[in-house]
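### Sample
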Amino acid sequence: MLRLIHPLAGAVALLTIATFWISTVAVEALGTPTDIARLKDAILWGMLVLVPAMAIAGASGMRLGRTSLHPLVEAKQSRMPIIALNGLLVLVPAAFFLANRAAAGMFDQVFYTVQAIELAAGAFNFYLLVLAMRDGFRLTGRFGFQPAAR
C-alpha cells in the first residue's frame, strides 16, 4: 500500500506547489489587486491539500526506505528535512503574511519582497521534489528509467 500512497502523495504535493507558483506569477502579471487577494486566500485553503500530501509523502518515504542504504534512498531522505524546513519556516508564514497584506490592499515593497522570497523558496522546493521523484523513478524503473542497482 505504501508503494501506491507514496508516489501519489508526492505527485499531489508537486502539482500543488506548481499550481501555487504558476498561479501567483500569472495573477501578479495579469490580475487586479482583487484577483491577487483572492489567489492568496485560495493558496491558504490549498495548504489543506499541500501540507497533508507533503506529510504523507515524507512519512511513507521514510517508512519505505527505513532500512535501505541505497544512495538514491539516502539522497531522497536527505532532501526531506530541507523541504520541510523551507515549507514550515518560509513558505507557510509567507503565505499567511501575503494573504493578510493582500486582503488589506497593502501591495507595497514589503509585500513584493516577501512575494519574491516565497516564489524563490517555492521554486527551490519544487526542484528538490522533482529530484526526489526522479530518484524514485530510478529506484523503481518507472517511466522508462533504468532500475537502479540495489
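The two ends are 21 Å apart (CA to CA). This sample (Transmembrane protein) is used throughout the tutorial notebook.
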